[in-house]
Design brief:
Elements lengths: L21 H10 L14 E2 L11 H9 L8 H14 L3 E5 L2 H12 L5 E4 L4 H8 L4 E4 L20 H10 L8 E4 L12 H14 L3 E4 L3 H11 L8 H10 L3 E5 L10 E5 L2 H14 L10 H14 L2 H20 L12 E5 H4 L9 H13 L1 E2 L1 E3 L1 H4 L15 E5 L7 H16 L8 E5 L10 E4 L1
Parallel strand pairs: 1-10, 3-4, 5-6, 6-7
Antiparallel strand pairs: 2-8, 7-8, 9-12, 11-12, 13-14
Bound molecules: pyridoxal-5'-phosphate.
Length: about 450
């Protein structure tokens, strides 16, 4: 008999999570104005709100916490981290920051000016925010296949080269400070970018004299998908693939809360001394001195080890296996999910899940609330509430995809948890239409309304 898959780690420390009753959850979610962000974590049994900063550190990472050197300048922990980043990426210049958006803030403060165009593949919210805040434009050049959940494409994060060429032809290269490639592409559902696409984007950037940067939050997961799905990479190690990916770029911003497997942290890595020099002034102003940038020594040490662990094949296999396990169980139950499954989450297609609820009553939010009521599981709406209102007309924007994201924290839950989630969704799906109601907005903030919105049951 073929041996089943098993995780390449065992559990050394546990954190109890609390079960609750449906009656309790009904009271709590009402008190939370039907906004899952308002729930305190002790009211949640399985928390799939995000995979950001929620992973479990290894014994070797905790050992580094004890070895942390908290010197203000030139700490050993900084040196360890800088060396490991160089070993993995090949980038010579390194700037620590407190998280990913802080890295964006520092790099973009130096590079992005009013009127600039920054092409990329579905920029992440904070990336877009930092571009638009500087009165520049984030231009989405993702391939069209990314926006159709029914189409299979192994690399839905890819850039459409015609769209990118048009951007270069329409705007003078002086108006384009850089191209940003997000690996994996979070906003398109954790979808990877192929090595071929990275290389072609890089060649086009070179032709037009425009630098290429990576938003590298999930670079290791991207490398895993290249190894699994792209011809010619089967026998390469993840670290070799990572090195090759970064060899096509000029630098990166990193949210270490993702593939750094730490709870807080980020950095910038660069190959250009001038850009480095331009950035460090902003880093000192916004983040801290250049050898800690908002991170304590122990955090830098844990990150140095986390980056090496995140680029081990066996670790990545166990992570993607867990996500595929959940996704396949949902497919077995006939539940509509986005395919192929991403590297960090499974996405439910709420349009197909609850077609009986009018779109004006927030289908994805309804499903997310129902999942909480059924089993104490917290997912997140990636739909109309998140898409917010048009700034001019103030009408709701209805995005093409109305999704519930179930993000899986790294090394945190087991296959039994995945099974529990799948069955909870099956129970809801089998009674859809009858029991699930829509919601109205009672109060909302003028921007970023999803964090604080107050809802009322229809
Ligand atoms: C999380 C994330 C960021 C922002 O990082 P923070 O650490 O949350 O500030 C930027 N880009 C991508 C792709 C991300 O997933």
């Amino acid at each position: 008999m073929k041996l089943p898959y098993a995780e390449p780690y065992k559990i050394k420390m546990v954190e109890p999570v609390k079960m609750s009753t449906r009656e309790e959850r009904e009271r709590w979610i009402k008190e939370a104005d039907y906004n899952l962000f308002n729930l305190s974590s002790d009211k949640v049994f399985i928390d799939l709100l995000t995979d950001s900063g929620t992973g479990a550190m290894s014994d070797r990472q905790w050992a580094e916490v004890m070895l942390g050197d908290e010197s203000y300048a030139g700490s050993r922990s900084f040196e360890k981290l800088k060396n490991n980043v160089f070993e993995l990426t090949g980038f010579d210049y390194f700037i620590p920051t407190h998280q990913g958006r802080a890295a964006e803030n520092v790099l973009f403060s130096h590079l992005v000016k009013e009127g600039h165009i920054v092409p990329g593949n579905s920029h992440f919210d904070t990336t877009k925010g930092h571009i638009e805040f500087r009165k520049a434009t984030a231009l989405d050049c993702t391939i069209d296949e990314a926006f159709d959940t029914s189409i299979y494409h192994p690399f839905k994060g890819n850039v459409d080269l015609d769209k990118l060429r048009n951007a270069f032809e329409e705007h003078t290269p002086e108006k384009i400070p850089f191209v940003i490639l997000t690996v994996t592409c979070n906003s398109a559902g954790g979808q990877p970018v192929s090595m071929e696409n990275i290389r072609l984007v890089s060649e086009m950037c070179n032709r037009y004299g425009v630098p290429l940067y990576f938003d590298a939050a999930r670079f290791a997961e991207n490398a895993y998908f290249i190894k699994e799905r792209e011809a010619g990479f089967e026998d390469k190690t993840i670290k070799e693939i990572v090195k090759q990916m970064f060899s096509y770029g000029d630098g990166m911003t990193m949210s270490a809360k993702k593939d750094g497997i730490v709870n807080m942290g980020g950095f910038i890595a660069l190959n250009n001394e001038e850009v480095y020099t331009g950035c460090i002034t902003f880093n000192i102003m916004y983040e801290g001195y250049i050898t800690y940038g908002g991170m304590s020594g122990r955090d830098m040490g844990a990150l140095a080890v986390g980056l090496m662990e995140a680029t081990e094949y066996e670790y990545l296999k166990s992570r993607v296996h867990q996500i595929e396990y959940l996704g396949n169980r949902l497919v077995d139950f006939g539940i509509p999910v986005q395919q192929p499954f991403g590297g960090h989450a499974v996405y439910l297609d709420a349009h197909k899940f609850v077609p009986g609820i009018p779109v004006e009553e927030y289908r994805a939010q309804s499903v997310a609330i129902e999942l909480y009521l059924e089993a104490g599981i917290r997912g997140v709406e990636i739909g109309t509430i998140l898409a917010d209102r048009d700034p001019e007309t103030r009408n709701n924007r209805y995005p093409k995809l109305e999704l519930v994201r179930l993000a899986i924290p790294r090394r945190t839950y087991t296959i039994s948890h995945m099974e529990y989630i799948a069955v909870a969704l099956k129970n809801i799906f089998d009674t859809r239409g009858e029991a699930i109601s829509g919601y109205n907005i009672e109060w909302e903030a003028p921007i970023m309304r999803h964090f604080t919105v107050k809802l009322k049951k229809k």
